[in-house]
Amino acid sequence: MLDAMKKEIFLRKDELQNKNIQSLYFGGGTPSVLSADEIKSLIDEVLKYFNFKNDIEITLEANPDDLDKNFLKGLSDSPVNRLSIGTQSFFDEDLKLMNRAHNASEAEGSIKRAQDFGFENLSIDLIYGSPTSNLEIWKENLNKTVALEIPHISSYALTVEPKTALENWVAKGKVLNPKEEEQNREFYYMIDFLKDHGFEHYEVSNFAKPGFYSRHNSSYWKYQEYLGIGPSAHSYNGTDVRSWNVANNQQYIKKLNSNILAKETEVLSQQDQFNEMIMIGLRTVWGVDLDSLNQKFSENILERFNKEIQNKMEEGILKIDNNHLKIPEKHWFMADGIASDLFQV
User: Fold this and answer.
1) Among 123, 190, 192, 218, which has the minimal tally of Cβ within 10 Å of its Cβ?
2) Contact status, residue 23 vs residue 61, Cβ threshold 8 Å
């Protein structure tokens, strides 16, 4: 796999217009597949063809059970300077429901171990609105997060995905379906609590202390180009072309051994580009740049949109600030629904 990924880096080295890299992200369960030395080797390979900015953010996504002392020791000697840890909860009942491999003690221990090895730029994932939780438990999760001095939090409402154990349990009545009103209550409690503790709410599901915004994810939300390497990885040219690699490891390796890229590509229509800009932009504190929108899209696309935003501004669920269209934060829980009403269909 490592050789195939290096081959892909070489074959795609000219796809990015900007050769000065500001972020590098290792995700998708990588720590369970690659050693710290292999991660360093991939970083060295990227450096053959790209330049790293002096303050580059290099993130490794990991589960708590990946982060043992030996792995962290090796990682601390690498250029990796940020960890995103899939904690989900500090309560065992929540973790059992989510079918996680770690328990609550391991979740907390992995964070403390990472800090002991010098990783201060940490992000954790937290899930709210679980049937095994309630507002008091959610408060304890947030208190624990703040006490652990974690500077970045990504937090999502629990959803029942098709063909999962959770869907089966809900269907059989073993577990209650998550209640939207409870998730709404926990979401807005989280906003107030984290703001009181110095966090900035910069995307619907993301909170950071000043200086700790996820640079990598922010590039997605600002429609910047990115290059994804490895099975299932996605790429975007910053305008109208998106591609994704095959998910099957064997197919991925076989094609690259023959110097063939294992990817599929789609050209985004004007309608697709418009809808994506609206969906992503309205989830962020920056909003949608109306000047950019007017320059990029035709009057046919913008006519209905302009009428619809006037209606929603009168309802108070949209506002224009410095010529950027935004959803007031008190309506962020419904951001995706509000954005979808503005889509071109």
Assistant:
1) 192
2) no
In the block, tokens 């990588």 appear at 30
Q: Do the beta carbons of residue 157 and residue 183 sit within 8 Å?
A: yes
pTM, two decimals, is: 0.92
CB 326 within 8 A of CB 319: yes
Q: Name the CA radius of gyration of the chain, rounded.
A: 21
Q: How far apart are CA 253 and CA 230, in angstroms?
A: 9
How far apart (Å, rounded) are the C-alpha atoms in residues 35 and 124? 21
Whether 271 contacts 339, CB under 8 Å: no
* 98/130 Cα distance (integer angstroms): 9
The 10s digit of each residue's pLDDT in 26-74 is 987 555 578 999 999 999 999 999 999 999 999 999 999 999 999 999 9
CB 190 within 8 A of CB 138: yes
Two tokens at 24?
């590098």
Tens of pLDDT, residues 283-335: 999 999 999 999 999 888 898 899 999 999 999 999 999 999 999 999 999 99
Q: Which tokens in the block code for residue 340?
A: 């979808």
- Ramachandran angles phi, psi of 154, nearest 5°: -110, 125
Q: Per the structure block, which two tokens stand in for 285?
A: 């504190």
Please give the residue range of the domain that contains residue 310: 270-340
Structural domain contains residue 160: yes
- Asked if 93 contacts 138 with a C-beta cutoff of 8 angstroms, the reply is no
**What distances in angstroms separate CA 221 from CA 18, 247, 264, 282, one per listed residue?**
17, 24, 22, 10
Q: Which residues contact 285 (CB under 8 A, 6 or more apart)?
A: 200, 201, 202, 203, 326
Please state the domain count of the chain.
3
**Quick one: 282 and 296 in the same domain?**
yes
Contact 114, 85 (CB under 8 A): yes
- Residue whose C-alpha is closest to residue 207's, from 152, 158, 127: 152
